[in-house]
């Protein structure tokens, strides 16, 4: 089958790509709303620590592996824990932004889908942050975990939640670090066809080990993020793949299965060809 010409591909991509300025304003607006919303969830110290004890006890009740086992492996060397802290502090936003930029430029139809999914997951996470403040395991003495960011650096949080004006440290559940990383991997797997595309799952896997090993999140934070993402993906479906157009103007599927024509040239069931009529009358 003939491949579509380069101008046709560019024209199709340009038609599907939303306006750049509008998308920049939309994404920036969503991010601003989320940051302001997180600030509304600050405080509630007693409630956040009470919920932390409940989450910790629930994880032990259902026999989830201890977060301490991941951190113990990480603390075998200063280099490893420093790399984990750096990954936590620097990869989250740039990786997600790079994913959206690449999707916008190379897969505009999938970009709209990915942006909607990320917005839905982030909005749902904000609701949970507001209704279920949760202190991370690094703050809970019962866990016996080390705040690796404060001890080894770098860290993105202030020393005290009460004086931290840049972030809400009581917004551990769900983990958007993990939820966004998982969506980046799923989005690239869906939008590409490389045999190596499944390696993108390493990003959420490494992110999971990092957020747990640095004591910034519980296992349940990642589980809830994955559940919210699963719901969003079930509701917001990715675009279907349309068949490339040949020079004759037909897709590959249509090329092998011509559409019957009516006598006036319109698509439709039409009238059988003359040879079939002759055969039927014999």
Comma- or semicolon-separated keywords:
13 helices, 0% strand, globular, Vanadium-containing Chloroperoxidase, domain 1, 282 residues, mainly alpha
Write up what this structure looks like:
With about 280 residues, this protein is mostly helical. The protein has a single domain (about 20-155, about 165-235), classed as Vanadium-containing Chloroperoxidase, domain 1 (Up-down Bundle), CATH 1.20.144. Helices cover about 60% and strands about 0% of the residues. The chain contains 13 helices and no strands. Helix 2 packs parallel to helix 7 (about 110-130) and helix 7 packs antiparallel against helix 9. The relative contact order is 0.14.
How much β-strand is present in the residues?
Answer: under 5%
CATH topology: Vanadium-containing Chloroperoxidase, domain 1
CATH architecture: Up-down Bundle
Q: Compute the number of helices.
A: 13
Instruction: Measure the end-to-end span.
Output: 38 Å
Summed over residues and divided by their number, the pLDDT gives a mean of 80
Gross morphology is globular
Q: How many structural domains does the protein architecture include? A: 1
Helix vs. strand class: mainly alpha
Element order: H for helix, E for strand: HHHHHHHHHHHHH
So what's the CATH class?
Answer: Mainly Alpha
Task: Please give the radius of gyration in angstroms.
Answer: 26 Å
Helix content range: 55-70%
How many DSSP-defined strands? 0
The largest sheet is: none
Poorly predicted runs: 4-15, 242-282
């Amino acid at each position: 089958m003939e491949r579509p010409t380069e101008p046709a591909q560019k024209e199709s991509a340009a038609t599907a790509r939303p306006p750049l300025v509008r998308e920049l304003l939309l994404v920036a607006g969503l991010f601003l709303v989320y940051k302001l919303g997180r600030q509304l969830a600050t405080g509630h110290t007693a409630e956040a620590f009470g919920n932390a004890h409940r989450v910790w006890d629930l994880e032990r009740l259902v026999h989830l592996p201890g977060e301490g086992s991941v951190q113990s492996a990480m603390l075998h060397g200063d280099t490893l824990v420093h790399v984990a802290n750096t990954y936590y502090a620097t990869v989250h936003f740039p990786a997600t932004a790079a994913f959206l930029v690449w999707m916008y430029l190379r897969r505009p139809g999938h970009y709209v889908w990915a942006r909607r999914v990320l917005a839905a997951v982030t909005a749902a996470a904000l609701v949970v942050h507001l209704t279920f403040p949760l202190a991370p395991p690094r703050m809970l003495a019962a866990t016996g975990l080390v705040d690796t960011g404060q001890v080894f650096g770098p860290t993105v949080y202030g020393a005290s939640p009460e004086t931290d004006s840049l972030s809400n440290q009581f917004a551990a559940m769900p983990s958007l670090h993990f939820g966004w990383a998982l969506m980046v991997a799923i989005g690239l797997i869906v939008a590409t066809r490389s045999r190596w595309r499944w390696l993108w799952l390493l990003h959420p896997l490494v992110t999971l080990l990092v957020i747990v090993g640095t004591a910034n999140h519980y296992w349940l934070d990642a589980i809830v993020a994955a559940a919210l993402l699963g719901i969003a993906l079930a509701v917001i479906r990715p675009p279907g793949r349309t068949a490339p157009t040949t020079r004759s103007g037909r897709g590959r599927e249509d090329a092998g299965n011509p559409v019957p024509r009516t006598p006036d040239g319109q698509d439709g069931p039409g009238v059988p060809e003359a040879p079939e009529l002759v055969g039927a009358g014999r």
